[in-house]
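Worked example (supplementary).
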Amino acid sequence: MGITGKLQGGTISKMSKSTAMAHSNLAFVKYWGKKNTEINIPLNNSISMNLSAARTTTTVEFDDNLAADKVTLDGHTPTDKFSGKVSKHLDRLRQISSIDTYARVQTENNFPAATGFASSASGFAALTLATSSALGLDLDEKTLSILARQGSGSACRSIPGGFVEWYAGTSNEDSYAAQMASADHWDIADVAVVVASQEKDVSSSQGHLLAENSPFWPSRAELLPGRLDRVRRAIMERDFRTFGREIEAEAMSMHTIMMTSAHEVAGSWRSGVYYWAADTLELLIAVQRWRADGIPVYFTLDAGPTVHLMCPGEHRAQVMAAVEATQGQREWSILVSRPATGASIVTGPEE
Amino acid sequence: MGITGKLQGGTISKMSKSTAMAHSNLAFVKYWGKKNTEINIPLNNSISMNLSAARTTTTVEFDDNLAADKVTLDGHTPTDKFSGKVSKHLDRLRQISSIDTYARVQTENNFPAATGFASSASGFAALTLATSSALGLDLDEKTLSILARQGSGSACRSIPGGFVEWYAGTSNEDSYAAQMASADHWDIADVAVVVASQEKDVSSSQGHLLAENSPFWPSRAELLPGRLDRVRRAIMERDFRTFGREIEAEAMSMHTIMMTSAHEVAGSWRSGVYYWAADTLELLIAVQRWRADGIPVYFTLDAGPTVHLMCPGEHRAQVMAAVEATQGQREWSILVSRPATGASIVTGPEE
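After joint prediction of all chains, the assembly is encoded as:
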């Protein structure tokens, strides 16, 4: 596959160029721990919302004249690791089309790197859709979600729009995400506070492998089905209080798993994986106070220091004011999202 | 008992004055959660070490001329709540002696308040011993430990010397602490870093009641017997590496329970009890780095922001240097302890 630069399995009748976009997503019930690390089969279902403030736009153009894939990220040449992952993903779609023509891939994020927004989620969702479109494939949402998942687990949740559930499944064919409710179903906001942009000590990929090191993992596995039910129902019924309590408890549940996942790195023992910055903790505690002061706000966290503050849409200004009062002289950045649509074609292939 | 100021049950033949001292202690396997809140029967055994840097000295003098107990703390009149607890504890010993004479109680801590050192542990241990001595009672260590426990749970561990285990038991008679090894058994040091002296949002007493709110409590209860075995063995065998890993995992386990003990306060929901300050988190992460740099150091934490750094005695200067390099311009205070003796009489009753 795809290393000679020659057509092997077939020809492309409508060789062309497509541009797709996808939003990043924020999980309310978390993906942490994998059954299969090769094709990203998670230990449990997860539930998420697409984020309007974090969008990736990707253009894919297959060209017989190329001797290798040519990838740019925000106008620059990315790391070999990044390009390698993109090529590996293109291979998955080339295999479906039985071709091995190389492609030009341009990808642009409208949000800064290392902010705690998963650009791999929006990135692989946009890449999957742009590639399948450029290849003239007519894949359904489920197939696109399965393909995106192979690139990066949580990318499968950025294919459908709005509020989404990823069914863990047990194999490549039954692990995919589907829409629970569209983006306009519920007017809630994510006020994301980016408190630090440090390189992670332990990558998410490594962290996933450590989840079961925590003595609390079996308890978490046990409580997850009930939590999924409650979060699903709270979203469908637009029950913000239940939703908020569940997602905040869920974030703490995931981070306690992380912080109790003891492991060794280069012979040195660590008691857990610590993703919080000092400012993260300060915000978690501030949220308890803000609620006591009557602001309807609950936090969630991903595998990083960014704090996502969820509130009803009409309270976003109030939450931003509370954040700014706490911020003082610190250089935090705030990104506000509403629920966003799924992956979509911006410019289809020329006929 | 003891509210009329008159002798009821008997007279005191050797009415006199005694001074006792006791050290605070640091738990390696934690006391968090109670079976009985009235007389402090814990959910599990705990293991601790007395701390040389934190000592309370208490003088108790019974006097027929007093119309009420008269308590001073570090030379000042304490809160009514504090005095009330002291009087209630004096009652327990007056009941044994069948007298109801009031007493003058002077108590002095050689360490500042709100540092994260349990002055209630050293305080009730010293008060128990000074009172029993002033009353001419000849109580054995087990009885003193049981009495101290009724004043404040962890005070029972400050009666025996050195390394101590508190047997949870199931009733007043079988819940007490005993020595595992004397203070000179093992040369280890506690470098305690006091990063903040804020008033706690949730007191330890309230926190204990919330432990079983955590969905992770059953897992913790399950892992504790194994941990107690391993910590006991590590102390007896002076196996610092096993000891360190166990106590750091244990501290994180307790704080996991705390941070996932969801509850309501005045109608406002909190996802957990947060005892860390931002600087606490910074130190926990720094410890991981210091170990990677070859410093033999592990942390433990109580219900507060103070970080206790445990190291072999000969490494205390190295650990202090690492702390100072991290501290920068912040006003942390550092208290270094070695294992300390148990409660003892400073000045016995005049015959």
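Two points are worth noting when inspecting this output. The helical segments of chain B are 80-97, 119-134, 141-151, 204-210, 217-236, 240-259, 278-292, 316-327. The longest helix of chain B spans residues 217-236.
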